[in-house]
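Researcher: I'm preparing a figure for a lab meeting and need a structural model of a single chain. I don't have an experimental structure, so a prediction will have to do for now. The sequence is pasted below. Please return the structure as tokens so I can convert it later.
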Amino acid sequence: MLIAGKDEECNIGGCLESLLRQDYPHLRVVVINDRSTDRTGEIIDAAAAGDTRVTAVHVRELRDGWFGKNHAMHEGMRHADGEWLCFSDADCTYESPALLRSAVRFAMRERAEFLSVLPRLEAATFWERVVQPVAGGIMVYWFPPQLVNDPRSPVAYANGAFMLMSRQTYDRLGGHEPVRATLNEDMHLARRAKALGVRLRVIRGCDLY
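Model: Understood. Here is the structure written out token by token.
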């Protein structure tokens, strides 16, 4: 599992606590502090000191030609050695301890080479409750899951909050290098996957995270 965060001191602790409750065997977590100016780095260092499954990575400078999150994930991959790779965000909370195990099992059963599980979005404010359902409806209209999941269709979509793929697939996509200067790296990785014939699947996560 790779988690990147920049100035996420309010979220990263809860994210890691919930992630470390996952029942996935041989879980390894690479958490990348992307040039934070708050306590994000301290929090992930404490997590790494308290649990051998956690590796803390600190990005001090952004390389030319890269956007922040893409560069952070690229650097984090230097420390990831698993057969399955899952990319996520520091503001996620993994409510079900079965999330990773279920996702990997689903990917293997369905022969999905690139699986994106959609989150349940929190809506704390009035405008979040107004905007988020509309935005979600628009995304489903633009990127119908039945077309995204159809290998014959060029329609592609992924959500960067949870992108699971094998290391072989990640290497086939070229890693984060081809999308190094894109804002929506998840969408660009999904399009690249479809173009290369990678089996892409998107499913709802309901209350898993």
